[in-house]
Each structure stands twice: as C-alpha cells, then as structure tokens.
Specification:
Structural class: alpha/beta
CATH class of the largest domain: Alpha Beta
CATH architecture of the largest domain: 3-Layer(aba) Sandwich
Number of strands: 13
Radius of gyration: 20 Å
Number of helices: 11
Number of domains: 2
CATH superfamily of the largest domain: P-loop containing nucleotide triphosphate hydrolases
Strand order of the largest sheet: 3-4-2-5-1-6-7-8-13
C-alpha cells in the first residue's frame, strides 16, 4: 500500500527533503541486435503498461512484423508456453501477453532480447524498459495513470516515482496517459507543461464480445493495481455489482477464496466476473465458472507511434 502523502500536495517539510529522493539507479543500456520498443512508467504500481504492451504487439503484427515480447522474470530466458506454464510458474502478465505474441521472461532483459532475436523476432516490445532501461531502444514509451499522475512529483522514498521526474521524463520519446477525459484534463493541467515529449491520451475500453451486461447481477473481483477501474467499467456497461471484491495486486486466488465468492454469487443469483489478468490465475476448478471482461487500450492517436516504429 502506497503512503498517502505520495499523492497529496507536498507540505513544507516534504518540499525540503523531497528532492533528496533519488529512486532506483539505472544501468547503461546495452545494444540490441534488433529494434526494441521499450514500455515502462515513472510511477510505481499499475499504470496500464500491460495493455500498452499488448496494443503495441498487435499494432506491429498488423504491420507484418515478427514481434516478440520480453518481460522480467527469473533465471535464463524462457519462452512462455500457454499450455505448459501457469501463472504460478511465470506470473500472470507474461501468460496474458503470450496470447497476443510470443513472450519471453528473463532475469536479464538483454538476454531475453537476444533469445527472441535468435528465435526469429524482427522487433521486441520490452515490458519495463523505461526509465533507465537495460537495453537500447528505438522507441521509449512511458505509460502513466492519468488520475494519479506523478503523485507529489518526488522519487522514492519521498514519492511514488522510480526516479526523479525531470531526468525520468527526459528518457522518454512518448508519454501515454490512461484515464477518462476528466482525468486527462486534470493531468494536463498538473503536469502537461513539464512533459518535454509528445503526450498521447488513451483509455481502457471493454472489448465487444456479444455478452449482454446490462442488468446482469455480478460478484466482481479484481487483483490488479486499480480494481476500482474494473468495477467502474462493469457499472458503465450496466452490470449490477452485488459485490465488488478488491484484492491485492497479483493476489493468489486460492480455492478457499474462490469458494467463498462462488457461495456468495450462488446465494444472490449472481455471475462471477473478473479481469483477464486475474482469469489466468484462477484455480482449474473455477475456470468455467467465471467470466472475464476483456479490455483493450484505445489511444487518441497512433500517428506519432506509427511514425517511430520500424
């Protein structure tokens, strides 16, 4: 749980000591054998990086590119196999991304990029490659939550940023913010003047699946960084949330937890609903009992990104 003062206007003491926060020290980027598009964030916590990675991978596929995704994991580079691996093995995000493009997990991102290149990748989308990326990138994209912005503007431990704001922004070629129109307006007022590169607003929009949500009674649960966004999306579709169970990001969906939620849904005649990311962590016995709501990132414009892509 992030300290509350990270997202409040700084008082006199914090304005004095806040600039001392340096965040995480980066490394010198190493060359890559193929073009890399790096996706990261300045703010800690979930900002929408995974939907951006998926959107970029899909965009590159549409351009006829052999695109692979590399994300951090444990050990030597490992290509994700959706049939053989579970979220417990490699994490929920790599497993979700692997449905859209060949995906690798690696402790050292540079090793992952080299493994992807050896396997036939023409271009890599690197999840987590900004700021202070370990691999030289052709395009560096920061993805931020429009509602939270950069918090109090200071780096850890005095604020939510991974590194100082000005040098962190200087590493980006593009900043994408995710949120409603009102949130985007607030972000522009608060931070727009400090962004030295192009800024593209975006929003997460539910994917049309033919599911009729209006009037549906649901017990919703989400173990993502901002579960309230998921619940708001369901309400906007007309679903009636009998219960909205916010879980810790990446929380294990144990049989006990799921049995409790299933019992509540049964007693109220409701449908169990979760996010795509949570769905990959469901115990096998519950996978047919839970509906997921897929969302995709809808950018205001792809013009600047398309121009920068190989």
């Amino acid at each position: 749980m992030a300290p509350r003062f990270w997202y409040r206007p700084p008082g006199p003491l914090l304005r004095l000591i806040g600039p001392l926060g340096r965040g995480v020290r980066g490394t010198v980027p190493v060359p890559s054998p193929i073009p890399v598009v790096a996706v990261g964030s300045l703010a800690r916590g979930g900002t929408g990086k995974t939907p951006m990675v998926i959107a970029l991978a899909q965009r590159l596929v549409m351009r006829g590119k052999a695109v692979h995704v590399v994300t951090r994991g444990e050990g030597a580079p490992l290509r994700v196999d959706e049939r053989a691996h579970s979220a417990a093995d490699i994490g929920d995000e790599p497993l979700l991304i692997a449905a859209f493009a060949p995906t690798w997990v690696a402790r050292e991102p540079a090793d992952g990029v080299r493994a992807a290149a050896a396997a036939g990748a023409e271009i890599v989308v690197l999840d987590g490659g900004v700021p202070a990326g370990p691999v030289a990138a052709k395009l560096r994209v920061l993805v931020e939550d429009a509602a939270r912005g950069f918090g109090n503007g200071f780096a850890w431990p005095f604020g939510p940023l991974k590194t100082r704001l000005k040098p962190g922004l200087a590493e980006a070629d593009l900043v994408v913010t995710i949120g409603s129109e009102a949130m985007q307006d607030q972000f522009r007022r608060s931070w727009g003047a400090q962004i030295p590169c192009h800024h593209v607003p975006g929003r997460l929009a539910p994917l049309e699946t033919g599911m009729e949500w209006a009037g549906l009674e649901v017990v919703a649960f989400a173990g993502i960084a901002a579960p309230e966004r998921f619940f708001a999306s369901l309400r906007a579709l007309g679903a009636n949330l009998v219960r909205a169970q916010a879980l810790v990001d990446h929380q294990e969906l144990t049989d006990t937890l799921m049995a409790r939620l299933e019992n509540e849904a049964r007693m109220t005649g409701a449908q169990l609903v979760t996010t795509e990311k949570d769905a990959v962590r469901l115990p096998r016995a519950f996978r047919q009992k839970v509906i997921s709501l897929p969302v995709r990132l809808d950018l205001e414009s792809w013009e600047r990104i398309d121009a920068a892509l190989p």
